[in-house]
Amino acid sequence: MSEKIRFGVIGGSGVYQMEALQDVEEIQLETPFGPPSDRYVVGTLHGQRVAFLARHGRGHRISPSRLNQRANIYGFKLLGVEYLIGVSACGSLQEQYAPGHIVIPDQLFDRTTGRALSFFDDPTVGTDGLVVHISLAEPFCPFLNQICYEAARETGNPVHLGGNFVTIEGPRFSTKAESRVFRSWGMDIIGMTTTPEAQLAREAEMSYSVMAHVTDYDVWHETEEPVTVEAVVRTLLHNAEVAKQAVANAIRRLADAGPSPQANALQDAIITDRSLVPPEVVQRLEPIIGKYFSGK
Ligand SMILES: CSC[C@H]1O[C@H](OP(=O)(O)O)[C@H](O)[C@@H]1O
Ligand SMILES: Nc1ncnc2[nH]cnc12
Asked: Which residues hold substrate (predicted)?
């Protein structure tokens, strides 16, 4: 890959393309983890090269549990992405986060059950022999969160900086009992895809934030109907336009940004004696860990 593309965008429900990209080319990538959700669409926005991927594939064909999120993130890494913005539809668990609002969460709570959560924990692709424990105390990049917040505010749409985002396995929506428990735990918004996207981005040393746009009040609200796909889609049209505008503003604000603040996230995370890590493991994960083994 000759050209380095520093900025990436993953579009979720309702965001399957970014019309603002110019001089577009489509790139099909293969990864050691299999194929990403779709072809990457690379184009220019505010003078920056940006790679866009439809998280569920164009046409929304892949269920949250079946997403090959490792392939998606690995593909962005191959392209050279340092800053990655996810766009996600979410339910609200608090009255003040109303449908149509944007939330830039600062915390993540994992309630998924069956996903591949790490590049470094997969016997089927031969990563035995390398143990890595990243820090996820701050699961979203605080620097990028601030940029996304200001970028979203610029649209004039209501936006909240901070919030606890719970990721459920899906694909079903929650029961009322579950929704009430999440509220009692202090959760603010609910979705199905930010785990493991956020932690894989951290493992890949990218800055990652999610622009979560609220489509519904999940199922806890006394006076609102329980969430349905129909209700989500009704709100999506407005939300998707605001989110795309906010992402474009964020790219403009990132134009002069230095290297990602997460660029050394693996520095203190590799516990295995480096001389014992099998060369094939290093080779398979070269775009992610190569720099830590180049002097081996
Ligand atoms: C269409 S409602 C449920 C669906 O929407 C969200 O998707 P994404 O995060 O990709 O925008 C949610 O996580 C579920 O996958
Ligand atoms: N209520 C909800 N629960 C989980 N994911 C969602 N995506 C949009 N609304 C949602």
From this structure: 192, 216-218
Share of the chain above pLDDT 90, in %: 92
Which pTM does this prediction carry?
Answer: 0.97
User: What's the 192 CA to ligand 2 centre distance in angstroms?
Assistant: 7
Distance CA 83, CA 77 (A): 10
Whole-number Å distance between alpha carbons of 203 and 206:
8
Lowest pLDDT segment from 20-34, 60-74, 113-127: 113-127
Which atom belonging to ligand 1 lies closest to the Cα atom of 15? 11
Which ligand is in closest contact with the Cα of 66? 1
Contacts of 37 (CB under 8 A, 6+ apart): 53, 54, 55, 56, 57, 62, 67, 68, 71, 72
Taking the centre of ligand 1 as the mean of its atom positions, its distance from the CA of residue 92, in whole angstroms, is: 13
Q: Which residues contact 8 (CB under 8 A, 6 or more apart)?
A: 50, 51, 52, 53, 76, 79, 81, 83, 84, 85, 206
pLDDT tens column, 87-146: 999 999 999 999 999 999 999 999 999 999 999 986 665 556 899 999 999 999 999 999
Q: Which residue has the least CA distance to atom 7 on ligand 2?
A: 90
Protein residue with its CA nearest to atom 10 in ligand 2: 91
* Residue 218 known to be catalytic: yes
From 72, 192, 213, 239, the mutation candidate for ligand 1 (largest count of ligand atoms within 8 A of CB) is: 192
Ordered structural domains, the chain, with CATH:
7-292 (3.40.50.1580)
**Residue 202 DSSP SS3:** helix
* Ligand 1 midpoint to CA 201 (Å): 18
The yes-or-no answer on residue 216 being catalytic is: yes
- Binding residue per annotation — 207? no
